Amino acid sequence: MSKGIAITGMGIISAIGNNVAENYSALIEGRKGISRISKIDTVHRDAIMVGEIESSNEALIQQLDLPATNNYCRTALLGAIAAKQAIADAQISDINQYRTGLVSSTSVGGMDMTETYYYDYLENTNTQKYIEGHHAGDSTQKIAQQLGIHQSLVTTISTACSSAANAIMLGARLIKSGKLDRVVVGGTDCLSKFTINGFKTLMILSDTYSTPFDENRKGLNLGEAAAFLVLESDAVVKAENKKVLAYVKGYGNANDAYHQTASSENGDGATLAMEKALKVAGLKPSDIDYINAHGTATGNNDLSEGRAIINVFGDAIPDFSSTKAYTGHTLAAAGAIEAVYSVLALQHNVIFPNLNFKTQMKEFAITPQTTLKEKELQTVLSNSLGFGGNCSTVLFSKNA
Amino acid sequence: MSELREELKEKIIEQLNLEDVAVADIADDDSLFGDGLGLDSIDALELIVMLDKDYGIKLSDPKEGRKIFESIGVMADYIAEHRTK
Amino acid sequence: MSTKLHIERYCHIKNSTVSLNGAPLFEIASEDFLTFIKAAYKELDTKYSKFFKMDNLSKLAFLAADVLLKEDTSLSEGEKNIAIVLSNRASSLDTDRKHQASISDPKNYYPSPAVFVYTLPNICIGEISIKHKLFSENSFFIFETFSADLLKVYTESLLKTNKAEKVLCGWVDFDADSYEAFLYLVSSEGTIEHNNNEITRLYRL
């Protein structure tokens, strides 16, 4: 059995809370963060619901104490806040005491500012600073600066909605192979017209609250969020006498090799990802106590993922739920958001409900957990399935 | 009506980048998806955009599209009946 | 795995030329990417009509991968355990601009689903996986410039832990009028050593 990698800190900002504690209260109280969009002026305002973070950019800038000349896009602002929380939670005072890397993921990057100032750029020199902040890597560089990581591996993963799960996987491997002692891993994505319009053309946005794994599901709610976890080597944990929140026990990634965006009918990629993760962890399907499903509430995902779960677990399906009805689908951040939720589930021995579920799906007999359930948990499996067929599974355990 | 059918064939080839297909290759009753022309779900969405843009027909449920896009013939009939431009 | 890793084959697509292991396979005088890539597709006998639906980045990555993978007879269909690790600088910017243009004009507001699906860099990996039936691990990184080291570290980790038998990796970048693909296949076969110097040397060829 391979040894897990210690998680010693985490930070999060999402539609249901500005930190880990607020997110946890919302989860156990069944309080979702889905509403009509208020911060983006879109023609789809009345046709969609989103998971929007309450704080304005100004408030976030103030929180980070940035100068007025800053060129942070919202993705970078959210990411910096969540990453700093994670570092504080891990009680790290000198980031460069150990070889520390940052693997961040995003799909939207600085698109929000480009949308706002696109026509302005030619005439208004004050807004041109945001051009630099457009590309996906810029938010990562800014987060690294905020954390004080100057001389180590800082990189961006962009594999759609599985990005953050892949960041966790890469971080764990970098520590396992001895390349780094500590890696801050996670993801950040803000809402933008770019994604709203894109998902709208794919006709997979719900006009009401999303209903994962429900027969009558109408599509997803987009959300914005950022979450980061601090992974540390056993040597650091020992030397610093660190409290370990949970372990990254296994991980797997596979390509669905089916379609640019749609998942295969039987969830081949997701099946392989779950099987690989179990293999890496040296665990059997029966060792999984809870599945935090990708569960976007699109017709295609929930059917394909449900079948994949059946492929792997057969008749003994563990409790499962999707938390996307709380936060919306936060794209490249989703894997990190749900990693934080998986760790919270382990810490508190509780399974979060799959909100808004009413009607059993016709195609199979598996039903998500719809109420808060207290249960002793050892290992949680979290799925993140992305466009491009990129399917990832991460396992979190109480024990190494 | 046959004009509309030819027009649709040309548009589909152009819009969906069917590089190796000519207008003459598509029969009016060939199925567009599956074994026929082999279109996929994204193509169906692209055709929904085309209905809106070129004929002023708005579909809100992608499942409706599946029936309408069964063949060029069915599609032309539907457009003739519902077009607003 | 104690076997030494090698770069089995490599492919460049740039300056209107497709080359395999440094030797040109196809060249054309045209400066225009679409003219060039379509002619290359035909000349290289690619036979995959979905190619024409792809965005520029996918066309570039797909063709380079196809040049490398169609040579591969060592693994039979269904057991090709080839992982894919690609990187670039511009992410999916070329297609992002197209999508952006379609939503920025309220009078002509018809965002295209077929464009939007390509507004992620890793879709090109999906296209390669679909064609070659690769269900293997895949990842896409964004860097300022070509980074031999990260590709090497990731690739070694995949091969040493038996996550894959071979890894297709490299750089595939498309931005406005400039394009560049350098893909290489790493395995225990071949003669070129898999190290940063060699990777960088081949990239610069």
UniProtKB/TrEMBL annotation, chain A:
Q: Which InterPro entries does the UniProt record give?
A: Beta-ketoacyl_synthase, Ketoacyl_synth_C, Ketoacyl_synth_N, PKS_Beta-ketoAc_synthase_dom, Thiolase-like
- Provide the GO biological process annotations: fatty acid biosynthetic process
Signal peptide range in chain numbering: none
Q: Which Pfam families match?
A: ketoacyl-synt, Ketoacyl-synt_C
What protein does this entry describe?
Answer: 3-oxoacyl-[acyl-carrier-protein] synthase-1
Q: Which domain of life is it from?
A: Bacteria
Q: Which organism is it from?
A: Ulvibacter litoralis
Q: Which GO terms describe its cellular component?
A: cytosol
From TrEMBL, chain B:
PROSITE patterns given in the database record = CARRIER, PHOSPHOPANTETHEINE
Q: Does the keyword rRNA-binding apply?
A: no
Protein name, as recorded: Acyl carrier protein
Q: Name one Pfam family in it.
A: PP-binding
InterPro entries for the chain: ACP-like_sf, PP-bd_ACP, Ppantetheine_attach_site
Query: Mind telling me which Gene3D superfamilies this protein's record contains?
Result: ACP-like
Q: Keyword Phosphoprotein, does the record have it?
A: yes
Question: Which keywords does this Swiss-Prot/TrEMBL entry list?
Answer: Phosphopantetheine, Phosphoprotein
List the NCBIfam families.
PRK09184.1 (NF006617)
**Residue span(s) of domain Carrier:** 2-83
From TrEMBL, chain C:
Please identify the protein, giving its name as recorded.
Answer: 3-oxoacyl-ACP synthase
Q: Record the organism.
A: Ulvibacter litoralis
